[in-house]
Specification:
Blueprint lengths: L1 E4 H8 L6 H8 L1 E3 L2 E4 L1 H12 L6 H14 L4 E2 L4 E2 L7 H6 L11
């Protein structure tokens, strides 16, 4: 699952084609100021609106790290949090190549 700030989406919609925000919002679940999208819906929307290839080496690495985190005993909130790493956005931290797991799992 991907968690996106609705305010960030509204900001991005100014640079996107008409109907962008409505289509993105319809694809996910809104909860407390955030939109939750499945990985598949996120990839499809990214491919549709960014013009970029949704499958990049960084995305592959982040997805592999996420799978490792999901199986870890220190995982919290469906691997969007970690008992050993306190940060504002664990998913974003995990997707940065220079970041490292505190247990050395990735």
């Amino acid at each position: 699952m991907i968690k996106l700030s609705i305010s960030s989406l509204e900001e991005a919609s100014r640079k996107r084609p008409e109907g962008y925000l409505q289509e993105v919002m319809a694809a996910g679940r809104v909860e407390a100021g955030f939109l939750w999208l499945s990985d598949e819906d996120y990839a499809a929307l990214r491919a549709r609106f960014s013009g970029a290839d949704a499958v990049t080496p960084a995305a592959i690495k982040a997805k592999a790290r996420y799978a490792i985190c999901k199986s870890c005993v220190n995982s919290e909130n469906n691997a969007f949090g970690c008992k050993l790493h306190k940060g504002c956005c664990f998913g974003r931290w995990r997707s940065q190549p220079e970041s490292r797991c505190y247990l050395g799992k990735w």
